[in-house]
Write a structure and sequence with these properties.
This is Sensor domain-containing diguanylate cyclase. One of its GO terms (molecular function) is diguanylate cyclase activity. With about 325 residues, the protein is α+β, with helices and mostly antiparallel strands. It folds into two domains: about 150 residues, GAF domain (Beta-Lactamase, 2-Layer Sandwich); about 140 residues, Alpha-Beta Plaits. The chain has nine helices and ten strands. The strands form two sheets. A six-stranded antiparallel beta sheet has the order 3-2-1-6-5-4. The chain has a four-stranded antiparallel beta sheet with strand order 8-9-7-10, sandwiched between helices. Strand 8 and strand 9 form a beta hairpin. Helix 6 packs antiparallel against helix 7 and helix 7 crosses helix 8. The protein is elongated.
């Protein structure tokens, strides 16, 4: 019998998840190429989200969102400016972006893109410093290219692994189905959100949570009976299902409350989706109050759910104040 291979110490094992790889890259760069800030960022919906960051000079925590339009990374990604600028004042586009970055002082910049397998931009590895750096900073370009290529490879592998896990979770939905509507029930919804929370924190993907509360269900139950109330709920579920896009998750959370996770949707796209849902409900002879809020790395899905729920109740209050039954 061959002896078991020796175990490798945990800190020497390769990172298998994208967030762990990002943390390793930032830690390595901070140690061997000191800058005022090193970060791995995600570019999404006009925002540059700091997924992993070490920021002794600027104090920016993970989850910070910065405008991409005025970022130094934007022109670097476009190929208009060099990846390494020991003195940003020598590069007009960087100098202008540094002015826009105030009150943060940026006098040196390093950046390289993280690219998906299809060539689309995911984000960047970037470094900033309030002081000008020596020209020897250029010598680190091969290291940056190597690290960004490594992150692209880990991103691809982790994306495939999490997609497979997500498909498995979707396949388990039959065990967590609401008997009245055929939608996911509360138990399935809570478990699905736990899985999605880990995925979103890993990649910083955009998403929005939508909360919907049916109007008039109690009146229907009281005046026409619970069978009519059940039919009212089923019609609402059918109408909402017609608006769900591929990858979105719709659930009946109990009573007259529904929830939806709009995967990959921006706030603007979700607002349009809610408008279609309202129209679909109206065509089915049903009405409801809606609230929606975006996912963020800082607040997570629980924070988005709470904000969406508050927005839904605020809509109810406004409608009642205007004399509209809700």
């Amino acid at each position: 019998m061959e002896p078991d291979p020796p175990l490798v110490a945990p800190h020497l094992r390769p990172a298998r998840t994208f967030d762990a790889a990002c943390a390793t890259v930032v830690e390595y760069l901070s140690r061997f190429v000191p800058m005022g800030m090193w970060a791995v960022t995600r570019i999404v919906d006009g925002r540059q989200v700091l997924l992993s960051v070490d920021s002794p000079a600027y104090g920016l925590p993970p989850g910070t969102e910065l405008p991409y339009a005025t970022s130094l990374c934007r022109t670097m990604v476009a190929g208009e400016t060099p990846r390494i600028a020991p003195d940003v004042g020598q590069v007009p586009q960087y100098a202008a972006a540094a002015v826009a970055a105030r009150p943060f002082v940026v006098n040196a910049y390093v950046g390289t893109p993280i690219v998906r397998p299809d060539g689309a931009l995911f984000g960047t590895v970037c470094g900033f410093d309030p002081d000008r750096q020596p020209e020897s900073l250029h010598a680190h370009r091969p290291l940056l290219d190597l690290l960004s290529s490594m992150l692209s490879a880990v991103l691809e592998a982790d994306t495939q692994a999490t997609a497979a896990a997500r498909d498995l979770e979707l396949a388990r939905r039959e065990a967590d189905t609401d008997a009245l509507t055929g939608l996911l029930n509360r138990r399935g919804w809570d478990r699905f959100l736990r899985v999605e929370e880990r995925r979103f924190r890993r990649f910083g993907d955009p998403a929005c949570v939508v909360v919907m509360d049916l109007d008039h269900l109690k009146t229907v139950n009281d005046t026409r009976g619970h069978d009519a109330g059940d039919d009212y709920i089923r019609r609402a579920a059918t109408a909402l299902s017609l608006c769900v896009r591929g990858g979105d998750v719709l659930a009946r959370l109990g009573g007259d409350e529904f929830g939806m996770l709009a995967v990959g949707a921006t706030v603007e796209q979700t607002a349009q989706l809610v408008e279609r849902m309202e129209q679909s409900l109206s065509a089915a002879g049903v009405s409801g109050s809606f609230g929606h809020a975006p996912y963020s790395v800082v607040a997570g899905l629980p924070g988005a759910w709470q904000a969406a729920d508050e927005a839904m109740y605020e809509q109810k209050r406004r409608r009642r104040a205007a004399g509209t039954p809700a």
